[in-house]
Design brief:
single chain; alpha/beta; Aldehyde Dehydrogenase, Chain A, domain 1; Aldehyde Dehydrogenase, Chain A, domain 2; 2 domains; six-stranded mixed sheet; 20 strands; globular; binds adenosine-5'-diphosphate
Length: about 475
Amino acid sequence: MTKLTDQSLLKKASYWQGEWHDADNCFDVTNPANGDVIAKVANSSADDAEKAVAAAHRAFNAWAARPAAERAELLLRWQQLLLEHQDDLALLLTLEQGKPLAEAKGEIAYGAGYLQWFAEEAKRVYGDTIPAKTDDQRIIVIKQPVGVVAAVTPWNFPNAMIARKAAAALAAGCTFVVKPAQLTPLSALAMAELADRAGIPAGVFNVITSTDAKAIGEVLTEDKRVAKFSFTGSTKIGKQLAKQCAGTVKRVSLELGGNAPFIVFDDADLDAAIDGLMASKFRNAGQTCVCTNRILVQQKVLAAFTEKLLKAIGKLKLGDGTADNVDIGPLINHDACDKVDKLLNEALALGAKLQCGGKRQAADSLFYLPTLITGVNNDMAVAQQEIFGPVAAIQSFDTDAEAIALANATDSGLAAYFYSRDIGRVWRVAEALQYGMVGINEGMVSNPAAPFGGVKQSGYGREGSKYGLADYLDIKYLCLGGLAD
Ligand code: ADP
């Protein structure tokens, strides 16, 4: 950790009411690349979470009342600080999460991009006037922040999953409490330090670090002072938290697991498809909810595509994310490696064929070799569950109808990708895919201007774009009467 230029970005306490709060005990944050303990962080309690909610509640009225232009100014200052400290923030992120430094830097810039986008969008929260039924009335619609927002975020994007939610919430005039994943709290705390330096008022942005996700989650989902709950994580936990929110009728946004198909049609530009696939499959070692999970290739181009993919995978460099030119870092923990092993071995036992990789670099290591399997079918667990690892799994199909049916045969509906140059096919397939986001001749779709989110059991609500801001705003209808002479 001596490599941080600004050592005070390494924070180890929870942050609420503009102050740092230690806890009675701490938990270890470890580097997945080598198992080293990077920091011992406050293991805050449910009582602490309650205090953070109270702080956010106290801060709400004043924050909501500030002109949007002033809120925007503060968000932009925060964004600039994130960019100024991009190298340190990226290093912290790589140390706690494992992804290569270049990807970590990309994540910081991507997260900061949401702060910029929503700072701008904050100034455009327009209302409506609607023609009234009678001439002595006017109908006016205004938009107001929903109130205190609570969030629970995952470990795979320790910075951006928070930035994306907090930027929209704060821009709308809401205050915010987040519980980051216990595996990656340092990025969240560094963001709090920079929020503080940016002049974000006390109580507006709060972070609770804890290993007791259940107890903290109960406060954040059940406290009636919290108006909205936003979650990114597994489908199982998301469903449970949505139930917990029902008791106080909170607004809920859920960004849950995906099972992205990547369809390669016979008229595709195969080299472009390989580039798109490599980014969407192997980024973050395959640990993203929009990662390609199933590769569907039309029979006519199956052999050519498989050969090209095998070559591309052969060039990937596995290693510690802080080393030079590394493409893939370690998986997050042993459970993640065990899950990949299990899915892979089951697929192989059912007839899939191993083309490369297929195991960890060494028995006790978290580095999983980039892997390709062919001859997969849609009923295998590897095609129905999120792999969350660097395993490319190819299935084949004959007709467009078959590809669409295979792609849609899942409970998930987050991201899908397909490659084709035929405009008629592009429209037909884009409309038929039951997904919230579709990359057409593109392997990376996420950016602050676009609505990120899923359908089916991948969740509801959108992050980014004008739709992302709407999720943090209430609509209020004003009926102005008595206007007749
Ligand atoms: P993953 O498999 O990606 O770790 P999880 O859904 O388990 O997905 O975790 C995502 C986030 O949800 C993390 O911050 C984790 O601590 C939190 N979490 C896990 N279980 C609960 C729970 N019962 N209540 C509230 N938050 C939880």
